[in-house]
Amino acid sequence: MNEDAPRPIPDLTLKSIGKQDLYDMSVADLEERIEALKTEISRCEAEIEARGATRSAADKLFKF
């Protein structure tokens, strides 16, 4: 990986989701949307936990 290459900017489409009008959506659509968002939250939390575990292992490895 090229160290000088800029980091890719994450897709922040979630910002636009918060601006969408929910009025025209059915209850089923809203429930599906909620489930999709819950799934994404769980995925993000798992990634945060994994990174914490990796850092903890690295800290233990390099602690003298």
Overview of this structure, please?
This protein is mainly α. The protein is built from 2 helices and no strands. It starts with 13 loop residues before the first helix and ends with a helix. 0% of the residues are buried. The model has no long low-confidence stretch (mean pLDDT 83).
In short:
The protein has helices spanning 14-17, 27-62.
Order of helices and strands: HH
Number of helices: 2
Tell me how many strands there are. 0
Q: How much beta, percentage-wise? A: under 5%
What is the helix content? 55-70%
Termini separation: 30 Å
Sequence-ordered SSE layout with sheet pairings:
Elements: H1 14-17, H2 27-62
Defining traits:
64 residues; mainly alpha; 2 helices; 0% strand
